[in-house]
């Protein structure tokens, strides 16, 4: 054929279909040339097409028996003599040549849909086609293959069945990662599959989750196939002009066009499609593990004729399950009609009858022999009932088509000849691969399946590597041991090597490669993230990266134990104290919210884990460049901060002492750090601002002094310290023994609170001394006061140096210096000290004496500003200082806008008024200073001629004390136009005074409103830094602090005293504390779920209130109409008329339920007299109090207070079931559920111990209640 000649000029520049996973959706023209050349070379070597070798004229003149005309045959095919009339055979008279049709096809119309295609020979091996799909086209191997077959033309689905088919096919393909294989044409069932793919593509936002629909069609039966010779083809669907041929469906994603060298023949692809499906069914499932599962294949049948019956029969012989859609027509309905019947009833006559019913006029073309053959096949199909599933819309056992498809595969798995345990495991692995938790819950985890923990471990690992949180939760609920899963060899390391592409993985891979270049310990990553390097991540790499994210103050979470002989890091098999912590950290590092929540629920040290997650996520959010990913990380970080707050709230409300111990205990699982430290490093202001944390900080602030001490007593004791020995000042009650003698004195002056106030007094003394020296005693030779000032400042410098080098957390000098400089108050300290040193140097010289004094005066301002730091501890002034700091930042931005107007107006004014001013100071005065003063109301007089005085200025600018006169005219008056300068001044005042100043006020107001809500938490967070500073500060204030510095120097440098070590809990105490914390976490999770459910209850309550209003309207209608006896029977009866009233009189009303005091209630009951107890009696003044310790909306008594409301309630009882929940015994004087667990009956099971020794009397055990002074059963109050 002529097409074959095109292969002679085959060049490397042909675009290729070889795309990586990341660029599957791009056109081939965007691929690199080397990639296109490699793809073209692969296609030329592996993919062939068929060509006719012998022109044998058929019935139609000029056309070969292959279907192609003479003009499309090569010359060699026309030469053999006697070709005409010979029997043409495709096996003998065709040969293979490299294909010339592959690439991408762009369908015309709206959307410009693009698909991949290739023309392949019918003799192509299935292995080559599978490589084409997975390697060249980049498709991920499927977890399920759905082969859809059925009617090709004149096929119509009813609306309901069509909707269920679309919905089921989309769901099963999306959840399982399935491939869908069809005939690929725009007709029949293939068209409906394409529409389902289109619907899914329209509903999906991303391209990564698109369905894979592979169409295998006959090349010779495709209409407009001449357009597919190009490698970037544009295909037009001409359904009207296709004739006997068919068009490709534009909704399929891939096409394999099977060529056998013929034209116009259908069904060419069936054989190759069958072989390809069989090959795929023999490929291992991606997560099958040790079970050895293969990719399951299912055949879905809609409508169809005799050819479809053969397809079903052959598929079932190969062990492929088939799902028949009843109601789709023809052969599908015939099989569905007899499915489940005894074979004796499936007769030839019955098949004749059903064929006639469902095939219509087409039945007349069937021969009796064919009917008999089809009857036999149908009987064999029915006999293989484990492979046959009929989806009936009328039945609810399947529900949806996707469930029917998956259940059909599970049914096959159950009937395979394997053990029961292997069968259940196979089904579970299939459900995990499909990510169908609903199937697993209903079909696998049943009473029949007795699961053991070890049987679920492989499924658990598959769920983790597949990132399937719902399955992870389901398996944990069914008893899988997370510790055993992670304790397997390299299990946790494999999880990190199977991480999807994420920020943490990219950072870790860089760390691996850096380690490989720096030393022999190069362990590389092999996985999805780095397929180009055969590299593997070790746990030491993970530990290093986690320590980088947490901070250098932590230790390695997974400490390395050296390098083994195989060249890889060894670490403990039990890699941490808690497998839940390992799972939680692994999920947090990949920013997976669902898995992280499951892992956190399994953590023992949950509060520390939540704070560590907040720190890690915020650190990653700072380093990641993707804005959307940053937002997700920050959102997840805030969630875990709320979790930490919730758990700590539960702990603090239960036991304050234990809760505070949780804050300061060292966590072995998280780098041997504390919760409070993690919260501070993570900038979790909400957690630090918690009342319990602030109580701990207050206790640290007071030291061993009692928190309840008034400040005036502390001040008096600071001055007159003997008062502490008289009991004047209280000390902490946590001491095992009372403090005596020197211990009390050390506790007083060692308290951070006392240190703070001594330093305040010292600082005020320093400022007073500084002011006296500057204003009174600043002589050429330093006086003794000035020398004292210098000594005082030297002690301040020593303290700042001590703070800079004091590193109890092990940060290192570089990071400690960064932390020191990041504090605004430290910057002011450094600035004030530098200015003082420079001013002192100038002051000691004769030439710069006065300049030195000026610098010292300016430095005094900085020292005074530093005074604001002492007010940060104040609960009143501290938040205000934060607001001031934020407003200062706004002021800087405002000054930038203001400077534009000031300079613009000032330069223009100066240029108009003054001609060629050469004095710089007067230029700045006229261009900047005067316009700035105008804002504050100082309007200049030189902008017009009204107040001009030539004596007040100098004409040539020779007088440095006078401004230069403006340009004068002949009359010795200013020559500038006054109307222009006045107009400019008005415009300037309009924008500068009115617009910009009001803008500044609005900015300040907005900042105040925004910051004011958070100032309390910000202040509480920053309060810690001040407490920490004074907790480690020497007791003596400056200048006496110099002696403390000498003592510390001798102690640490000369005596080499060890640094302070963190106090750790004993193992038993640690386990007890963590168990209690886990219990509090469960309470928090339970309350959280209850809050979520209460939101629904709140909606129900709103609906109830709406119904109540409607009933009130109904009552208003009843007032204007005659009373209905059935509705108002209770109101019309007089008291005592009914039998119930007489029974109540005999029995008497409740008495104890009307006692004034109710246990736990704040006030007494509302008094209810005996005759007012019945609800039938009107009690207009009845206004009982409410008592409900849990703030429930249930009512124990009722809320009816008058006849109107009582009548409304009677009406409501006819429409709503017990809406007011009144006490059936009558009024009690109290509203609410009280201490009862629930409304209505509260049954209690009591244990009664009895004996009958002499059979004369039955004895029971009772105890004497001293408080009630009565006998009672054990454990029961009288």
From TrEMBL:
The keyword Transcription regulation does not apply. The chain crosses the membrane at residues 711-732, 753-775, 819-842, 848-871, 891-908, 979-1004. Residues 756-1014 form the Ion transport domain. One of its GO terms (molecular function) is ligand-gated calcium channel activity. It is a multi-pass membrane protein. Keywords: Calcium, Calcium channel, Calcium transport, Cell membrane, Coiled coil, Ion channel, Ion transport, Membrane, Transmembrane, Transmembrane helix, Transport. Residues 116-337 form the TRPM SLOG domain. It comes from Gadus morhua (Atlantic cod). This is Transient receptor potential cation channel, subfamily M, member 2. Belongs to the transient receptor (TC 1.A.4) family. LTrpC subfamily. TRPM2 sub-subfamily. It is found in: Cell membrane. The keyword Cell membrane applies. Residues 610-637 form a coiled coil. Residues 443-690 form the TRPM-like domain. It holds the Pfam family LSDAT_euk. InterPro entries: Ion_trans_dom (IPR005821), NUDIX_hydrolase-like_dom_sf (IPR015797), TRPM (IPR050927), TRPM-like (IPR057366), TRPM_SLOG (IPR041491). One of its GO terms (cellular component) is plasma membrane. PANTHER family: TRANSIENT RECEPTOR POTENTIAL CATION CHANNEL SUBFAMILY M MEMBER 2 (PTHR13800:SF2), TRANSIENT RECEPTOR POTENTIAL CATION CHANNEL, SUBFAMILY M, MEMBER 6 (PTHR13800).
